[in-house]
């Protein structure tokens, strides 16, 4: 199977590169090699490589910065995916695109289903929802995976932030009234790989961790695993104002993907597995994996 991976050097892209099936012929592109907001460039690469599947791991993920950097956020999270969908349609390729739990407003008291109506309360969520709509408008058979609270050995994420802060502080204050599901990027990568091989799969799927926690509880779990004595104090969202408002509940129901044979991310086991010294060193792709330069 010929697979084009965009956003290859973000934490999800790198996690995918670590797990590429040997049977894949992969073209991995970072943003420097392929800017998905450039429609002509996307068309040129896709027509030349002619992938069977496009995996879009490229995204603008700076939630607070998106409130003021709106043009760039919309280009990367909405126009870029639309460009990929158009190119995929032209060559008959399938597209798997990543979205977010932040398309929801957090007012629901139970886990969100794929059929629940999005209602984002920050611009990041709005840009991702717009991306979903544009993808399906062009390619109704596309796959969109909504995920949440992603962490990994790579890039910037909540786990690394907590460990960095704990290096110089004995006590941290972390929001305890926002609840969601941490997701290990390696597990998300495996879910994408599974769906890439499932020819009948289409539509929206939710994929996230199997246990919901607050950010405060997530931080506490991190320090238990890393055996640090850092004290974590819970505070309200109102005590920690941010540029972007976050949903109080962004827990998602993953039953639809489970019925397709993909289990939710066991994020607690992954914390134990990684020990979350979380090396930022990038391991080059194995021989046979083509990276576009």
TrEMBL record:
User: What's a GO biological-process term for it?
Assistant: dTDP-rhamnose biosynthetic process
Keywords, sorted A to Z: NADP, Oxidoreductase
Identify the residues that the record assigns to the RmlD-like substrate binding domain, covering every copy.
Answer: 1-270
The EC number(s) given in the record are 1.1.1.133
Q: Listed GO molecular functions?
A: dTDP-4-dehydrorhamnose reductase activity
Cofactor, how bound (note): Binds 1 Mg(2+) ion per monomer.
Q: Does the keyword Ribosomal protein apply?
A: no
Query: Which EC main class describes this enzyme?
Result: oxidoreductase
Query: Which pathway, metabolic or otherwise, does it act in?
Result: Carbohydrate biosynthesis; dTDP-L-rhamnose biosynthesis
- Needs which cofactor? Mg(2+)
Cellular component (GO) terms are: cytosol
Top-level division of the source organism's lineage: Bacteria
Q: Which reaction does it catalyse?
A: dTDP-beta-L-rhamnose + NADP(+) = dTDP-4-dehydro-beta-L-rhamnose + NADPH + H(+)
Q: Which family does it belong to?
A: Belongs to the dTDP-4-dehydrorhamnose reductase family.
Q: What does this protein do?
A: Catalyzes the reduction of dTDP-6-deoxy-L-lyxo-4-hexulose to yield dTDP-L-rhamnose.
PANTHER family of this UniProt entry? DTDP-4-DEHYDRORHAMNOSE REDUCTASE, METHIONINE ADENOSYLTRANSFERASE 2 SUBUNIT BETA
What's the protein name? dTDP-4-dehydrorhamnose reductase
The gene behind this protein is rfbD
